[in-house]
Amino acid sequence: MEPRKQPAQARSAETVAAIVEAAARILEDKGFRGYNTNDVAARAGVSIGSLYQYFPNKDAITKALLRRETEPLSAALEQAGDAPSLAEGLQRFVQAAVAHQLRRPVLARLLDFEEARLPLQAEVGALGDVGAKALARLLARHGAGRGAAARTASRDLFAIARGMIDAAGERGETDARDLEARVTAAMSGYLDRMKIIAL
Amino acid sequence: MEPRKQPAQARSAETVAAIVEAAARILEDKGFRGYNTNDVAARAGVSIGSLYQYFPNKDAITKALLRRETEPLSAALEQAGDAPSLAEGLQRFVQAAVAHQLRRPVLARLLDFEEARLPLQAEVGALGDVGAKALARLLARHGAGRGAAARTASRDLFAIARGMIDAAGERGETDARDLEARVTAAMSGYLDRMKIIAL
Amino acid sequence: MEPRKQPAQARSAETVAAIVEAAARILEDKGFRGYNTNDVAARAGVSIGSLYQYFPNKDAITKALLRRETEPLSAALEQAGDAPSLAEGLQRFVQAAVAHQLRRPVLARLLDFEEARLPLQAEVGALGDVGAKALARLLARHGAGRGAAARTASRDLFAIARGMIDAAGERGETDARDLEARVTAAMSGYLDRMKIIAL
Amino acid sequence: MEPRKQPAQARSAETVAAIVEAAARILEDKGFRGYNTNDVAARAGVSIGSLYQYFPNKDAITKALLRRETEPLSAALEQAGDAPSLAEGLQRFVQAAVAHQLRRPVLARLLDFEEARLPLQAEVGALGDVGAKALARLLARHGAGRGAAARTASRDLFAIARGMIDAAGERGETDARDLEARVTAAMSGYLDRMKIIAL
DNA sequence: GATGAATGAGGATTCATTCAT
DNA sequence: TATGAATGAATCCTCATTCAT
């Protein structure tokens, strides 16, 4: 399921990138039903044989795409966990997540679903885990508790954010600022109500 | 795409029900990858020919299943919109949603995803629309505003609930009470923060 | 690797037989290089889908053909082991083997080779084992020893017969009587020389 | 189908040899199913492009391997035909054949089978022909007849030897002396019984 | 109505071979 | 001469759907 060949030459790297992007486009245009390797290859301007030089099977392509889309967000979420204040951490967190989702909402939603089926080996944790962990760290670092309760809270916060942002993307919202404000409100409202911390 | 024939006789109704339940089981066991009409028919104890007597195509089965799972919840959500108080309305709303998701979490998640692809004609609104509308009515009836802002708020509330409940189901949570409390907290926290209404 | 569906109706049985025979013909005509499921189906006058209704994969077809060709011979060889005299046993043994090989020599050779690659589960022993065992029984029952030496001898006898008959088939010999006489001579000559028994 | 270029330089000869040996190894390890040019090239430590510089196509590699394996044996068998006595001739013949087969039994068996499919042009006769001819010469030179009967006998003798030695190789026998004795016994027993000559 | 045999388009993957660098 | 990226025909197999019985 891993990339078959490390693209050694520049040309190869381009080919790999083209395949992954083609996969993204096809998923956006036609969904999983229309997502097949022949079309991906064609859209990438590459022969089907070349596609299989770089990816051992279809899932490997999806996985590569998943990584490409997920990793920058993961990194941003992790950084948010190290913010100087809780408020700023949440803000960064939400900003990153919103920016990610509004960039390619259809794709984000499809990959989000597919993530469950594709066992990304340990190397890349599921997005949900990464996000929840970053939030847990943020809470812990700013006196909002540790332990099981804090873990549940951080998972809930992540779920709130994901649910709202996902729905907004699906609805076609484009105003990032507004969405960020609402998501942040929901998250701090939750913290408030759960008496975890008052913001 | 609609059921091909209204089951006139009791036996037919049983057959239809068996097919739909078989579809549910297969989706739960093997996901979309293993979901095919031949297996559904076999699991239902029915010939593939009979299956196609009752359903014109595969999507029609999925749709029937979607309806079967969704309609009771839709009805419950609508009722919650008519509750005597906002607090009670939210509570009923969350109770219904949590009960639904925890009953068959895997199935709920898969259908939730598939809902986007299957154009249920107007007759049955998407669950999200129904839920958001019920919440909007609830807010309106208890002095929490109307108009665009309220519509956005109700959609957000629905998204918060769906996000949290979905994640809980995926994680295998089983304590409905606890989950309900957290979801309610998140929703009222949001209303609070957004200055829509103080609960 | 086993037949997928027991042909319940007469029509099905015919289809299965047609597929197996088509496989035989294609192997004879074009060898393993030209042996592919699409051509087998076409030659059987059946759609590729039907072929896969009865056989889960290509090897299963080869296996069915192997059984069809091998089982009668196996049975005949086993019977030869129970002959009233050593001479008659050898004669029957050789007759059966020669008749088998001269019937469809090309096919016999190809399947003989393929047998090594296809692990027929215990049910059907490899032809070589069956034949050698029958010969061992024959020798034992007529005072030609048991134990390791007899086992080696029976394997050698089988190998002699197979080698000669195979080569004759490949060369296009058609005179069964003559071939039988030579093979019998070789086998009894071996027994003689090895001082196992004098015929 | 012939080697594309005569290796003029030493390095080329090494490359060719490496390719042929790689082919041998892969055939031994994975059989025909796993025998493909890309893997052969990789195993030979050569690029696929280089492989095709020396061999015009895959069959040419197999053929070169066949020659490499077959020629020394052919030569030895021919020499056996010139032995001073029939007994010594048979002995040399069997020794050479046994030594060949026990060296790389799996490879020998595979190539034996493939020989039928690859039309080695006249230059190199099929092993069977060479062996049978050597035996025919041996018989003729020692008063055991000429003509059709002797030709048949020599073919039978070769078939006996091949059959026994092949089976022994497949079974994993390693005791060359013992095997030689049994094969010689079978051959002389045959000559005896067929009244061709008494040894 | 029910059955299940049959269909065949569609899709994943392999691998011999070429050719630009 | 060597390289290895690229090619695409060939092949295995699946599955939604039809239709004769």
Automatic annotation (TrEMBL), chains A, B, C, D:
Which UniProt keywords are listed? DNA-binding, Transcription, Transcription regulation
Cross-referenced PROSITE patterns: HTH_TETR_2 (PS50977)
Which residue range or ranges hold the HTH tetR-type domain?
13-73
InterPro entries from the xrefs? Homeodomain-like_sf, HTH-type_TetR-like_transc_reg, HTH_TetR, TetR_C_15
Q: Which Gene3D superfamilies match?
A: Tetracycline Repressor, domain 2
For this protein, the record's Pfam families field holds: TetR_C_15, TetR_N
DNA-binding region residues: the ranges are 36-55
PANTHER family linked: HTH-TYPE TRANSCRIPTIONAL REGULATOR BETI, HTH-TYPE TRANSCRIPTIONAL REGULATOR RUTR
Give the protein's recorded name: TetR/AcrR family transcriptional regulator
Which species is this UniProt entry from?
A: Rhodopseudomonas telluris
